[in-house]
């Protein structure tokens, strides 16, 4: 049996790390769609204030399998 997957793009942000931003993005995606199977980071960005990193942002492409 074959399956069909769909990709959604989301942006997530964390004041702690890129890893935390990715985790938060995946957790949020799982509340909206079922069967999340993976994700890849399309872009990473940091926000800087007074020479210090104050935020980590990731653009994710999240893959999930369609039912039916």
* Average of per-residue pLDDT values: 95
Helix content: 10-25%
Strand line-up across the major sheet: 1-3-2
N- and C-termini, Cα separation: 11 Å
Parts with pLDDT < 50 across at least 5 consecutive residues = none
Give the CATH level 1 class: Alpha Beta
Classify the secondary structure makeup into a structural class.
alpha+beta
How large is the count of helical segments? 1
Q: Using the coordinates shown, work out and report the CATH topology.
A: Dodecin subunit-like
Strand content: over 45%
* Total beta strands: 3
Note the main sheet.
3 strands, antiparallel
Mass-distribution shape: elongated
Describe the structure.
The chain has 68 residues and is of the alpha+beta class. It has a single domain (4-66), classed as 2-Layer Sandwich (Dodecin subunit-like). The protein is 22% helix and 59% strand. A 3-stranded antiparallel β-sheet has the order 1-3-2, covered by helices on one side. The radius of gyration is 14 Å and the shape is elongated. The chain starts with a strand and ends with a strand. The model has no long low-confidence stretch (mean pLDDT 95).
Q: What secondary-structure arrangement, pairings included, does this model have?
A:
Elements: E1 4-14, H1 18-32, E2 36-49, E3 52-66
Antiparallel strand pairs: 1-3, 2-3
Keywords:
single chain, alpha+beta, Dodecin subunit-like, 3-stranded antiparallel β-sheet, 1 helix
């Amino acid at each position: 049996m074959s399956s069909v997957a769909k990709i959604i793009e989301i942006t997530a942000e964390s004041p702690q790390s890129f890893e935390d931003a990715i985790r938060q993005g995946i957790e949020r995606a799982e509340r909206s769609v079922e069967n999340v199977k993976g994700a890849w980071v399309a872009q990473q960005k940091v926000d800087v204030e007074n020479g210090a990193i104050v935020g980590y942002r990731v653009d994710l492409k999240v893959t999930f399998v369609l039912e039916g």
